[in-house]
Specification:
mainly beta, Laminin, Jelly Rolls, 3 domains, 27 strands, binds calcium ion
């Protein structure tokens, strides 16, 4: 019978072909990334400059705060246009504050630009991050990676300062009041040829196989990175990243340092406000759903625990004290679990 088939859908999907997620009717505003939190509710991962449950509220960011990878697997990041004239000389200055836990200094990206080598283009990249309590600065001009590792950070300092640079093959790194360290890149190449955007706080997507060797930091940054400035000549002025008022081209789940988007959200019925940078959502108790936990979970909803027992093909109908199963043709029983014997012979007289 052509109408009596169904697909058993995994958790977040619904529809006859399991083709629907709650993000198909994307309620997120301003180009936010929609993620299906459950089969009924979504989380909106807010783009740069927006916050709130549906990313419809403006947020002014002067000191970006990054929250690493959230529970849905997305990193917070900012992406700026490629920095022009960075090939032979650059200097960067920046400050950062760490979120107050160990994982903030284990293996975390601060910034990255570069690409995996293809054809005549080498594995050129420039990366800065934290590893095992120290600042790590690496670059590859196409003929091998140069790496500088700072002394361990003094974690009693609330704000850390980095000044680093490179002239042709020679790079140097100065962290807080540590001694300046320098290194010379191997091989003969002297130009940094990078074509990607300039990422701060996290990669847009962490796909290790697409990153050049030696540039991988597994986690996004946890804390605030601010006052990033760059110059591409010794006598030039330092300038902020980005073209227009230092605004990035793109970003996700980046908040303002020391601001809490949860302070503006009131989750109802015992829901707990969760935040990750500018992204915010209510984590509802099992019997509630909806953006603010204001709708009850009915006995027929997929997230109801225990789940209803109506067999596939049956329609579950919520009742004040439970639910009932409406059976499709050919089945019967409380849960539509019994087949009805087909009439083999119809006699007319
Ligand atoms: Ca090169």
């Amino acid at each position: 019978d052509t109408e009596n088939w169904f697909c058993e859908c995994p958790g977040l999907y619904s529809g006859k072909l399991c083709q629907l997620t709650t993000c198909d009717e994307n309620p997120c505003g301003n180009g936010a990334t929609c993620f299906p939190k459950s089969s009924q509710d979504v989380v909106c991962l807010c783009p740069y400059g927006k916050t709130g449950i549906f990313c419809n509220d403006a947020i002014n960011i002067t000191e970006p705060s990054f929250s690493g990878t959230n529970v849905f697997g997305y990193t917070s990041f900012l992406a700026y246009s490629a920095i022009p004239n960075i090939s032979f000389y650059y200097e960067f200055r920046l400050k950062f504050q760490l979120a107050n836990h160990d994982s903030a200094i284990r293996d975390n990206l601060i910034f990255f630009t570069g690409q995996k080598g293809q054809g005549l283009n080498g594995d050129d990249f420039l990366v800065l991050g934290l590893w095992n309590g120290s600042v790590v600065y690496s670059y590859n001009l196409g003929s091998g990676t140069a790496t500088l590792i700072s002394q361990p950070l003094d974690l009693t300092l609330s704000t850390h300062v980095i000044h680093l640079g490179r002239s042709l093959r020679t790079g140097w790194l100065k962290v807080d009041d540590h001694k300046n360290k320098s290194v010379t890149a191997p091989g003969k190449l002297v130009g940094l040829n990078v074509f990607s955007q300039f990422y701060v706080g996290g990669y847009i997507e962490y796909t290790p196989e697409l990153l050049p060797n030696g540039s991988k930091f597994e986690n996004g940054f946890l804390g605030c990175i601010f006052d990033i400035e760059v110059r591409t000549g010794k006598d030039h002025q330092f300038k902020p990243l980005g073209t227009l008022e230092s605004h990035p081209n793109a970003g996700r789940s980046v908040g303002q340092c020391e601001d809490s988007p949860c302070s503006l959200i009131k989750c109802k019925n015992g829901g707990i406000c969760m935040e990750s940078g500018s992204t915010v959502y209510c984590d509802c108790p099992t019997e509630w759903k909806g953006a603010f936990c204001t709708e009850t979970v009915s006995a027929c909803d997929p997230e109801h625990n225990p789940s209803h027992l109506c067999r596939k093909g049956a329609t579950c109908v919520p009742l004040p004290d439970g639910y009932a199963c409406h059976c499709p043709l050919g089945t019967t029983g409380t849960f539509c679990e019994q087949g009805m014997a087909k009439l083999r012979k119809v006699a007319f007289q």
